[in-house]
Each structure stands twice: as structure tokens, then as C-alpha cells.
Amino acid sequence: MVAFYPGFDITADKDNLSFIYGADVFGPEIEKRELDDIRKSLRNPQTDGPEVPYAIAMDIGKKKDKINLEKRFLLYGAVIYSKGSLGEEPIRSQGHIHAISPSCGSSTPEVYEIWEGKAIIYMQETARNDPGKCFAVYVKEGGVVIVPPNWAHCTVNANPDKNMIFGAWCIRDFGFEYADIRAHGGLAYFPILKEENKIAWVRNEAYDASTLIEKSAREYPEFNLKKGVPIYTQYEQNNELFNFVTKPFIAENIWSDYEP
Fold first, then answer.
1. 179 Cβ contact list (under 8 Å, min separation 6)
2. Judging by DSSP bridges, how do beta strands 25-26 and 61-62 pair with one another?
3. Where does the chain have alpha helices with state H?
4. How confident is the model over 188-196, as a mean pLDDT?
5. CA distance 66 to 75
6. CA-CA distance, 187 to 174, in Å (whole number)?
7. Other CB atoms closer than 10 Å to residue 253's CB: what's the count?
8. Are 49 and 88 in contact (CB under 8 A)?
9. pLDDT class for 1, splitting at 50, 70, 90?
10. Share of the chain above pLDDT 70, in %
11. Running DSSP on this structure, what letter comes out for residue 257?
12. Which residues pair with residue 58 across a beta bridge?
């Protein structure tokens, strides 16, 4: 098992950056993201690092829930990050914006839950010249972070000595937009590794000046989420709890002045 029990039987194969599913769990073949896939978003696109920075398993869960998840257009995914670094940067994703999903006619949110290691969920309001609000949310094992619709974001392994693993709820017909982020050579801030694996942030000068707010993950009472209960288990207890993921308009009043 992974260090944090996510609510179903899944084992992380860290040597091969993969997952092993229990007898009552369905899941796909792993998709591996190569360093060349994310170079354009790095501060130094020519840097060295692990050939496979991270690997993704989209559409996993308990076999008993599969039909219900498909009916709700709800999708659960798991991601495992390599150890090490990408030159001066920690292992991270390239960053994207959730595209408009045909099923709901909107960009959609994502609900992260850290299973093992330490993560930073970086997000900014837009990927235009003025990035708007910018947040770096530090998350420990068991912590939850919600990224709202339309925001540009990436996920960072905050401890290069260990693998980082997380699960997430998203919409089934997800899609990603990269154009604005790539046009700016990445997101508005780059995470940089310092002594003792501390992370500093360097502004991407392709954007207008902005303020980065660093903070710890919080609880989400406005979404009726329970602290300490895996987000998959919370779905099992109330199948409608994550309707805001597939129908983001029902939380429009929350998104309008959102802070993670």
C-alpha cells in the first residue's frame, strides 16, 4: 500500500513509477510523462533530470463504483512523481489550464489529495500577461487542495529525496490548455531548490509583476469535505458530494472570490 490509505487497494511500485491494483479495483495502464514533454515550461529548458519525471493512472476506483462514476462523469486519477530534480527545479508538472469540457460547457476544478511525500500545488488566476492571484499551497500527506476552474496550475514534488504520490477527482471528459503558459515560457513563478531542499520562488519576467502568496493547505467546509477522511471514501458515503467537479456552476458563488 501507499503510506496514506486512499480508500481503496492500490500499491505504488516506486522502482517502476507504476501502480498495482487490488482485486476489487479497476485501473488503466500507466501513462509516463517524459522530460522532453515538459521542457518548454521549465526555467532552463535544456536541463537534465529523470527521463520520466512522473506517471499517471487516469480512471481508477472500486469495481463496484465504476458504473456510478461513469454515469456521474466523475473520474479519479493517481500520479506518482520521481525522486530527484530537474536541474535547479524540483520535479514538477509543466502546468495547464482545464479546457472547457463538452459535458458541462465549462472549465472544471480538480480536487487533490496527497497520499505520500510532500507537495506544492501552485496556481494562478490566469496565464495571460497579468496572472492575477498567485498561490503556492504546501500540502502534507493526507492534505487536500482544490484548484478552481480556469486557473493555471502545476504540481511540485516538494521533497526531492522521496517519491510524491497523489490522487485527484476531475471530470471524465477533461482536456488541457497549454498555449498561454507556453507562450510565457511557463507559469508566473518557478520553484527553485536551495540548501536543505528548501524551495524559493523566482518570478517569470514574461508576466506582469504579481504577488505570490505561500500558505499551507486548509480544510474546505464550504464543500462539506471532512478532514482526515479519504476523498474517495467521502464519495462512497455521499455520491453527490463531488458534483461541483462535474457541474462547477453549482459552486459559482464560491469560485467568484476563491482562495485555496
1. none
2. antiparallel
3. 35-38, 66-72, 179-183, 231-237, 243-246, 252-255
4. 96
5. 10
6. 21
7. 9
8. no
9. low
10. 99
11. T
12. 77
CA atoms of 112 and 166, how far apart (whole Å): 7
All three cell numbers of 169, joined, read 477527482
- Cell readout for 124 is 494562478
Supply φ then ψ for residue 204, to 5 degrees: -85, 110
Q: In 99-211, which ranges are E strands?
A: 110-116, 119-124, 134-139, 144-147, 152-157, 164-171, 176-177, 189-193, 199-203
- Where in the chain are the domains? 10-255
The angle subtended at Cα 161 by Cα 156 and Cα 166, nearest 5°, is 40
Residues 26 and 62: their CA atoms lie apart, in Å, by: 6
Which among 129, 167, 101, 135 has a CA at the least distance from the CA of 258? 135
Q: Which three cell numbers stand for residue 248?
A: 462547477
Contact 224, 146 (CB under 8 A): no
Longest dimension (CA), the chain: 51
Say whether domain 10-255 belongs to CATH 2.60.120.10.
yes
In the predicted model, what is the mean pLDDT of residues 179-190?
Answer: 96
Instruction: Say if residue 3's pLDDT is above 90.
Output: no
Cell 463496484 sits on residue? 64
Q: Determine the pLDDT at residue 219.
A: 97
